[in-house]
Design a protein that fits this description.
- It is built from 25 helices and 20 strands.
- By secondary structure, it is an alpha+beta fold.
- The strands form six sheets. Strands 14, 15, 16, 17 and 18 form a five-stranded antiparallel beta sheet that branches. A four-stranded antiparallel beta sheet has the order 4-3-6-5, with helices on both faces. A four-stranded antiparallel beta sheet has the order 8-7-10-9.
Length: 653
């Protein structure tokens, strides 16, 4: 829930909601002012998200906004803003949001352009990996490098790449897949690996490349155009559970359905009746469009993309989820650059490519915040670092006062020589292969300066970018509101069993079952067969006995569906009368139906257990409204009607 809340905040944070709204005090809570510009910004930003039309009414929305701010005041009054978890989460969200600002737009554009060009293709590649830590010693690094170079020589001399991968690659999956990574496009692999794959010609072997995992050589097996996206429908029968005795039931059922399709029955109708993917069955099995690598089953994707207008329906096949039949609905070509640009920019910021952007930003920050080093202090600090650093045994000088002077200044922030020495101390575990000590310290200094410049810039984003400050304020309020609601409403509604029971007892007529029936539904496209089914049902035959007699190896004449269904359920034949016994034969489209109603469960009030989820949700809303009313008495709220009328006119333009 929390990820959803802040995912929405982040998704809309980059949008500018321009309004010619003059900044005035709209209302106060205990004399703390809240202004028209924030009200206008939040109203416009959330307008498209609000489904309840009453909440789009400005007078109603003002009440919601005041209630929102009352809750924030209550959270602060309770001291929730001082909680460690809150502080850590706020810091985490700020770090996430700041990524949109601590970037170099020119370099970002170049990387986005490159990523789009690569996205037009899919590369099929294999690799051999020799692992080595990013911070490994020069000796270990050289050892790994020499090993990958030797393996490349063996490949170039004619040895089988797959066999060498199976025997030597330190990628655990290579034992089974011989290093084969399948097809991939941009952003599916770490950037250095991706670049090697896209720059190596088909059938060739790359030079050794270094990633955070170690050294690789890459063999490009194939390059094809990106398949774009596709939309399909499917019928799925779930794989048997461990406790199921009939392990072939799912397979037999999907084969029966496939025969029905071959007999000319409609895919959508069969999906509604029999597909066990409940998220799609009511829609005739239709799935959202997808591209390569977007589903959890590569096999499902490959079958889907293999379908054509001439062959739009697959044969039954099995994945780790179940047995499927897939039908092609529509193909979609790859998106244009303009359509993909926002998505690509977001991915570039999270990818290894961001290091290139960081390096470019460092150069800009050095120009934005020019610094002058205290050479005398630097020389003294550098001299204090010894070769013990390489063995992780170097300690700060016991007396750091001689280094407490200003090493350099960033705007209004002084950075001391002691700060620099402490930074060096933190770098020991990572190690450094740069020798002698003086050169290593010089390198550490450059890294330290970049770190300090970035930290200063990041710490002052609120003053550099007003929109960033506004979004951060929303984050702060959102986090506090979530913690407060969890404490005051959500947990109480779940644990206050007496209160929930009393709430249910006074409103139980709101929670009603429709008429329900325990039924067996049998369908066929053959009227003669359905008449035979009706006779057999009247004689007491079971669904399995009916299927065994009427269905053959080559042709499925009847299908069955059983369960307890509420009136109006799509699976029920239209016009079915809810009374025990064997129904008359009905027809809907090309299907004939006969139904055996085993038991009728009349409409009535649901028990608390049967409607618990809905009841808890209603109870939460009830508690929240009462709570907001209480807050209005706890805090003094004063609104400015004249100001509200002015902002109302502006927002309604």
């Amino acid at each position: 829930m929390k990820q959803l809340l802040f995912g929405l905040l982040l998704s809309f944070s980059a949008v500018t909601y321009a309004q010619n709204v003059k900044k005035e005090v709209l209302f106060t809570i205990d004399n703390k002012p809240y202004y028209t510009d924030e009200f206008a910004r939040v109203y416009n930003k959330n307008l498209d998200l609000v489904k309840d039309e009453s909440q789009k009414d400005l007078t109603q929305y003002l009440e919601l906004f005041i209630g929102y701010k009352l809750k924030i005041n209550k959270a602060n009054k309770l001291g929730l803003q001082n909680g460690t978890t809150y502080q850590n989460e706020l810091k985490s969200y700020r770090t996430q949001l700041s990524k949109n600002y601590v970037t170099d737009s020119k370099v970002t554009k170049e990387l986005v352009d490159e990523a789009y060009q690569r996205s037009l293709k899919e590369v099929k590649a294999s690799h051999i990996l020799i692992t080595v830590d990013e911070n490994a010693s020069p000796e270990d690094t050289l050892k790994a490098y020499n090993k990958i170079v030797d393996l490349r020589k063996r490949v170039m001399a004619g040895e089988d790449f797959g066999k060498l991968a199976q025997e030597n690659s330190q990628d655990p999956s290579a034992k089974e897949n011989k290093g084969d990574l399948g097809y991939f496009s941009s952003f599916r692999m770490v950037y250095a690996f991706e670049s090697a794959a896209f720059k190596t010609p088909k059938g060739k072997i790359s030079n050794p490349i270094r990633t955070r995992f170690g050294y690789h050589i890459v063999k490009v097996d194939d390059v094809r155009d990106n398949r774009g996206e596709i939309q399909v429908a499917h019928i799925m029968i779930l794989n048997p559970k461990p406790e199921d005795t009939d392990k072939d039931k799912a397979k037999n059922t999907i084969n029966e359905i496939y025969k029905k399709l071959q007999q000319g029955e409609k895919f959508e109708d069969l999906a509604k009746q029999f597909s066990e993917d409940k998220s799609s069955s009511s829609k005739g099995g239709q799935l959202n469009r997808f591209g390569s690598g977007q589903l959890s089953s590569e096999e499902f994707e490959n079958v889907a993309f293999s379908l054509t207008k001439d062959k739009p329906v697959s044969q039954p096949f099995q994945t780790k989820f179940g047995w499927h039949i897939v039908k092609l609905i529509e193909r979609f070509p790859l998106k244009t650059f303009d359509e993909m640009k926002p998505e690509l920019e977001n991915k570039v910021g999270k990818d290894d490519r961001s290091r290139l952007i960081t390096n470019s930003l460092n150069e800009k920050l050095r120009k934005k915040y020019p610094i002058k080093r205290n050479e005398k202090l630097y020389a003294a600090a550098a001299k204090a670092v010894t070769a013990d650093f390489y063995e992780n045994k170097w300690d700060l000088p016991k007396d750091t006062k001689p280094f407490d002077g200003k090493l350099f200044t960033i705007q209004d922030k002084d950075v001391t020589g002691t700060d620099f020495l402490k930074f060096i101390a933190t770098q020991q575990k990572a190690g450094s292969g740069i020798r002698p000590v003086g050169k290593m310290v010089d390198k550490m200094y450059e890294k330290f300066v970049d770190e300090q410049l970035n930290a200063y810039y990041n710490d002052h984003l609120e003053t550099e970018f007003p929109e960033f400050a506004a979004v951060m304020e929303e984050y702060r309020d959102g986090l506090l509101l979530f913690d407060l609601m969890e404490k005051e409403i959500w947990e109480k509604s779940k644990t206050d069993t007496i209160g929930l029971k009393n709430f249910y007892d006074t409103r139980k007529t709101n929670y009603q079952w429709k008429n329900r029936a325990d039924v067996v539904i049998i369908s066929s496209t053959n009227e003669k067969m359905i008449k035979e089914v009706q006779k057999m049902l009247k004689k007491g035959s079971t669904p399995d006995q009916i299927k065994e007699k009427l269905n053959t190896k080559d042709k499925v004449e009847v299908m069955t569906n059983a369960g307890t269904f509420e009136e109006g359920n799509d699976a029920l034949p239209k016009g079915l009368q809810f009374k025990e016994g064997i129904s008359e034969i009905t027809k809907d489209g090309q299907y004939y139906f006969v139904t055996k109603v085993n038991k009728v469960l009349p409409a009535g009030i649901k028990t608390l257990e049967e409607c618990k989820g809905k009841c808890i949700n209603d109870y939460q809303q009830y508690l929240e409204q009462r709570w907001v009313d209480d807050l209005k008495t706890e805090f003094t709220v004063k609104t400015n009607p004249e100001v509200f009328e002015r902002v109302k006119k502006e927002l309604q333009k």
